[in-house]
Amino acid sequence: MQLNAVVLATVVLCFLSQFAVGIRTGPVRISNGGRNGFHKLGPFMEAPEYRNGKECVNRENFVSSSYNDPSLVHIAMTLDSEYLRGSIAAVQSVLRHASCPENVFFHFIAAEFDSASPRVLSQLVRSTFPSLNFKVYIFREDTVINLISSSIRQALENPLNYARNYLGDILDRSVDRVIYLDSDVIVVDDITKLWNTSLTGTRVIGAPEYCHANFTQYFTSGFWSDPVLPGLISGRIRTPCYFNTGVMVMDMVRWREGNYREKLEQWMQLQKKKRIYDLGSLPPFLLVFAGNVEAIDHRWNQHGLGGDNIRGSCRSLHPGPVSLLHWSGKGKPWVRLDEKRACPLDHLWEPYDLFKHKIHRAKDQSLLGFASLSELTDDSSFL
């Protein structure tokens, strides 16, 4: 029996290692030396200590590393050298506005061969957020590299963009529900409200939907002219609508049971044989889930603030309330701010930026009037 248990444990470990390996996040000594030293990525200011209010569930009966604590809010994000500044700002925003910040647990997925090692990235997060509950998982890029097709923008071909496809394999099995967030977001509301989204029926994911968008534009003429492929999505109970994969509530139990990683990979394999889309990691999600997504209020993904995928031009907010700002598109706020070509909404990202070596920017007095989100809304659509 002992031998069988050892064999079984070995098989499970080998299977999981195909996708990721975890880095524990206890106290660490931060080193300034080495080719991949974190000084090349930072330094970042240490964030304030965010504490739970009296209304929060007491976590004293659970060890800090326990994922079974029902009071935890699990958030998954990618972590890499290029978008690190955005990730740090996103974490800061979540904690600042959370009603129970000590109950938020972050699952960071870092690429195995990033220019900064996952261990260095982990140390940098710990030095910035000393009391943060988090774990870093090393994503094996060779898992997906042969399935990636060329996209309209090279950044969309980064293997780490596809890590969300593998969350069911990467995250610990005890994590049965997770919020996935892109690294270019700012949360300006209590993340618990998003966490409490109900995924009704058999729905696996929830996200804001945009049914007025032209769904056909996300796929090539070769897809729509195929005698079989369009029928695979047209027969669904609800009309398929566009949704952005940068903000999703995901039921990981249903994800694993439904083998959704394999379903996404099947579409990617077909794409390698016959080009059916041009836009990176988004279309496979649309093909698998569109028409069966739990619709979440648009306030939880005011996306498109980075402009389109070519020019990255300035955009305005959708009308209505805002709980999350998302700089999807080519333009990123930290880049535009440093280059002194910021868009008006980029100044809403700036207060969450913990990067120490900020370039001193002359404050454009004409922008100071945009003091509230409500003043920045208009009827523009920026899908």
From TrEMBL:
The keyword Cell wall biogenesis/degradation applies. It is found in: Endomembrane system. It is an enzyme of class 2 (transferase). One of its GO terms (cellular component) is Golgi apparatus. Pfam families: Glyco_transf_8 (PF01501). Its EC number is 2.4.1.-. One of its GO terms (molecular function) is glycosyltransferase activity. It is a single-pass type II membrane protein. Pathway: Glycan metabolism; pectin biosynthesis. InterPro entries: Glyco_trans_8, Glycosyltrans_8_dom-fam, Nucleotide-diphossugar_trans. Keywords: Cell wall biogenesis/degradation, Glycoprotein, Glycosyltransferase, Membrane, Signal, Signal-anchor, Transferase, Transmembrane, Transmembrane helix. One of its GO terms (biological process) is cell wall organization. Residues 1-22 form the signal peptide. PANTHER family: GALACTURONOSYLTRANSFERASE-LIKE 8-RELATED (PTHR13778:SF43), GLYCOSYLTRANSFERASE 8 DOMAIN-CONTAINING PROTEIN (PTHR13778). Belongs to the glycosyltransferase 8 family. This is Hexosyltransferase. It comes from Arabis alpina (Alpine rock-cress). The lineage of its organism: Eukaryota, Viridiplantae, Streptophyta, Embryophyta, Tracheophyta.
